[in-house]
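Throughout our pipeline, every protein is held as a single compact record rather than as scattered files. Nothing more is needed to write down the fold, since each code stands for a local backbone conformation. The record that follows is passed on verbatim for readers who wish to inspect the format.
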Amino acid sequence: MTIEADWRIGDEADWQAKMSRLAPEGAVEPEEPVQAYELALMRWSDGSDVVDVALTEEELRITTRGGAAIVVGSSVEPGETAWHIGQRGAPEHEATWSVCCMDGVVYVKRPGKSGA
């Protein structure tokens, strides 16, 4: 998975509270160390089992077995890809499937078909 849009772990209010508590004071990009901490916590406590994926116009929400959720926004600069999920280890032109969000539109590539 490649993420270019803003993302967080969990609900917005909880995320802001974590940022206030954990982000280094004066950091240029304070969310990055908090994101790294939360991803490591998910990896070692939840494992990497995905149990639910929800997609709306505003966000992609991926929930793990332990209940943690990665929430990815769909807003980026015009012409940019907000997020991309594809076949592991395969370049896009060789992949049999992929899903991406560009300019707020979700594109799906699957065997024999492609499109929005």
